[in-house]
């Protein structure tokens, strides 16, 4: 049976996501989240510390599982000696985001993630896949001549572009295939 704190946290996350979907980030207050969840006025601050921390927890809880299965498979294959290609790494990032973008709740999550990452908001993510470290390792497996710093710079540019693309911030209609080709060339280029 889940603990009361875990149940309360999940209720706050669920209510916050519903309100954010209905009204948007700027229109949703901590007070509105607490009220809609039937909680006391300090519940969000007690369980998360701030609205931003609640949203970061929401994103991590909802998005980490999107990649986890795929990433577990890649980790297992790497143990067996497999080396990923850059195109496979791009697919690992783009495919789940394209699937999310096809759904209104997924679109909300992508917009919120873009807001956090592109806005350079610092969060203490707990999932290792929300940091650059594992992605740098994977890219260096595919391109061993890259330094850690070089791989990090490429991923920062790639993730920024991907988030802009899927958060609906890209001008015009750029096909996902074009995004994949551009990312592959940028990550693999010399």
From TrEMBL:
Q: Please name the Pfam families in this protein's record.
A: TetR_N
Q: Which PROSITE patterns match?
A: HTH_TETR_2
- Cross-referenced InterPro entries, in alphabetical order? Homeodomain-like_sf (IPR009057), HTH-type_TetR-like_transc_reg (IPR050109), HTH_TetR (IPR001647)
Q: Which residues bind DNA?
A: 29-48
Swiss-Prot/TrEMBL keywords? DNA-binding, Transcription, Transcription regulation
| Domain (HTH tetR-type) ranges | 6-66
Q: Which domain of life is it from?
A: Bacteria
Q: Which PANTHER family match?
A: HTH-TYPE TRANSCRIPTIONAL REGULATOR BETI (PTHR30055:SF234), HTH-TYPE TRANSCRIPTIONAL REGULATOR RUTR (PTHR30055)
UniProt name for this protein: AcrR family transcriptional regulator
UniProt lineage: Bacteria, Bacillati, Actinomycetota, Actinomycetes, Pseudonocardiales
């Amino acid at each position: 049976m889940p603990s009361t704190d875990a149940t309360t946290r999940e209720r706050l996350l669920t209510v916050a996501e519903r309100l954010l979907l209905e009204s948007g980030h700027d229109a949703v207050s901590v007070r509105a989240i607490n009220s809609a969840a039937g909680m006391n006025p300090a519940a969000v601050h007690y369980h998360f510390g701030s609205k931003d921390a609640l949203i970061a927890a929401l994103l991590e809880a909802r998005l980490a599982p999107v990649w986890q299965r795929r990433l577990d498979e890649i980790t297992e294959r790497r143990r067996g000696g497999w080396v990923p290609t850059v195109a496979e790494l791009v697919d690992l990032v783009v495919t789940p985001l394209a699937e999310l973008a096809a759904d209104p709740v997924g679109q909300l999550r992508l917009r919120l993630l873009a807001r956090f990452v592109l806005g350079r908001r610092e969060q203490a993510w707990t999932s290792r896949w929300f940091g650059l470290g594992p992605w740098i390792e994977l890219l260096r497996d595919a391109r061993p001549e890259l330094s850690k710093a070089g791989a990090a710079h490429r991923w920062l540019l790639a993730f920024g572009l991907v988030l802009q693309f899927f958060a609906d911030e890209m001008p015009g209609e750029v096909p996902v295939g074009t995004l994949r080709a551009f990312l592959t060339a940028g990550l693999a280029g010399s």
